[in-house]
Design brief:
Two copies of one chain form a homodimer. With 372 residues, chain A is an alpha/beta fold. Chain A contains 15 helices and 13 strands. Chains A and B meet through helix 2, helix 3, helix 9, helix 10 and strand 10 of A and helix 2, helix 3, helix 9, helix 10 and strand 10 of B.
């Protein structure tokens, strides 16, 4: 017998319409074939999706739990995501709420290499929230970015990433930037005795990503930033799985927001930024925090945090990395939502707080430490 | 001076809000930095996006034409798409309507290797609409799929693709399926004297896609099917650009629908299925036709067809391949929308028309030929 995994969908419509849609999902995500022509036996009994539960989920919304044979996924991330949401992404009123893999299917994916615990061990930060910032603005030279990285590390920031728009532009070419920023952070670490890391952006053309990641590893980078909406999720998964690279991976949400902007369509914050990012190997998941310049609500952000830690049969947890227009002053409130299991990403806010960037970083760090 | 390309956005809101959003796009898509802190000189004058035009586009909607320095894209498809729609994908009320590259920037991308004309030449079909179908349902063996491929080719179908859910499942493993289907279509071609092609699905894990594509080429496949929503757009671009492979590429819309389901967010049908698929190398673009089981309107489909052919400084045109629950009987009406520059994709409908699949294909073909 084929083992079955489950996907929880939220469907918009009255009971009859929603049930029809649920039956449609069963066909659309597997055989894409007229129901009356589906061959009996294996295909009818196992390959076609199956409605396991169906119940009301508030006015004009229903929740359908649909199971699929694990074999339909070919045990590949690309095809797993296709079964979960491929064709129905083009239909309205279907939203992926939650993914429930079987232990065997989850075992086909390594997930985050480090996870929350591994990242804490690696960075030598056993309990407090971590501090994360970005090198910007685009247009600075590699040397200017490295100087910023030095200041951030000197001021006590733990993780210093490229802004995700920094790729291989002429004004700060990838190789020069990575070398200089690695050196700058090492210099600061020697002076402070801390273990700050530099995380370059390796969102890049298909044929260059692996080489950029290896270059980063050799130069002494402490992690990799990838925007899976731009590269594809499986590219991030492959980087996370690469034993020669062996670096923590941070996902960036660029180009992926369309999956969550409509409340009745797409994928839930919990599943997309929690479960799917973990399946694709992210140790840390960057997303826009509530109250910043983006539109996620406090509840949605809390769901993301849940999704980064929900039990997934041995797939490690990831750190939520809320950011995006946060100010330093929002940290105390965020601690009430996320607790200590969070990486605070402050970008522009670090420049805004006062004229001395090192002092701003120290203030940011002190705010976090004061709460401990 | 840096050359600038343009993106046309449709923004939701009253005039003041929409203009504020347009200014925000200029920062968000480039420097991600507080406006008042952006350094003067190069960054302020060139790197930050610039509003070139701003005007009403109907009640509570405005159109903003924003220009960006070509250098911000690093001349990479991943970063180009990031500048166009990376961070603002997470905000609501911004929609990419149209992309206007400069000749030099367009020249950084090869686009479709064959385009409409090249595909017609390759398949020996100078003028009429082409006929396209899919091997399904998932769960059939490689031998059963090959037998179907033989029947489709015998009945006069021009392009026979894998259903996009066929990857490397145990019931029809990739290598066996591709070999058998290639052989079956060759056998039919010898008998009919036609030039039908088999197009396997190479949507696959990052490390395996190139090998699967090369295997397909060696086995005699006539094209490749890729779902860029699952693999990443740049993976499709790399396959299209690979001179050793040199096969036509067909894009599948799985997992990409979320960009178009909300009328005020995401990307227009014209830009996503027309312009972006071409930049990413698709010779043929599969999408759901109006009137089938998906929700695209007739106008949206006509815009897709426009986007597949709009002038893009030497980037070849692609064939619109409308499908998805179409029936054979919808063809005459579709000809009035698409004219002859179309590939008709009929899947389940070919099985539904009558019990003899070869006869159904002949009927499908005759309908198309009758119109010529």
């Amino acid at each position: 017998m084929m083992e079955r995994f489950q996907v929880v969908y939220r469907i918009t419509g009255d009971e009859k319409d929603a049930y029809t849609k649920a039956k449609d999902i069963c066909l659309e995500q597997t055989v894409e074939f007229p129901a009356e022509l589906v061959p009996g036996g294996l295909i009818q009994d196992h390959i076609v999706g199956r409605i396991e539960e169906f119940h009301s989920d508030g006015p004009d919304h229903y929740q359908a739990v649909i199971s699929y044979a694990a074999e339909t996924t070919a045990f590949e991330l690309t095809q797993l995501f296709n079964v979960i949401f491929g064709n129905i992404s083009i239909k309205t009123g279907n939203r992926v709420e939650k993914i429930e893999l079987t232990p065997a299917l989850a075992g086909c994916f390594h997930g985050p290499r480090f996870g929350r615990e591994g990242l804490r061990t690696r960075l030598g930060i056993p309990a407090r929230p971590m501090l994360f910032t970005a090198l910007k603005p685009m247009g600075l030279t590699a040397l200017e970015l490295a100087e910023l990285a030095y200041k951030f590390a000197t001021g006590g920031i733990d993780i210093i990433k490229d802004d995700h728009g920094l790729s291989n532009q002429g004004f700060a070419g990838y190789h020069e930037r990575v070398e200089q920023c690695c050196r700058a952070v090492e210099r600061a670490n020697r002076e402070t005795g801390q273990r700050a890391v530099y995380v370059p952006n390796v969102t890049a053309p298909y044929g260059e990503i692996a080489a950029r990641a290896r270059f980063a590893k050799e130069a002494g980078a402490g992690g990799l930033l990838v925007a899976p909406g731009l590269t594809g999720f499986d590219v991030m998964r492959a980087l996370a799985d690469d034993d020669e690279i062996g670096l923590p991976v941070f996902s960036h949400p660029a180009f992926i927001g369309s999956y969550v902007v409509s409340p009745d369509d797409g994928i839930s914050h919990f599943a997309l930024f929690g479960q799917m990012m973990r399946l694709a190997g992210a140790d840390g998941v960057v997303y826009p925090n509530y109250g910043g310049r983006f539109s996620f609500s406090r509840a949605e952000c809390a769901h993301i945090a849940e999704g980064t830690a929900v039990s997934m049969h041995g797939i490690k947890s990831a750190f939520p990395c809320p950011g995006g227009g946060m100010s330093i002053d929002s940290i105390p409130d965020m601690l009430t939502v996320y607790g200590n299991e969070v990486v605070f990403l402050v970008g522009g806010g670090l420049f805004r707080h006062g004229p001395d960037i090192v002092e701003n970083c120290r203030y940011f760090r002190s705010l976090v430490e004061k709460t401990q």
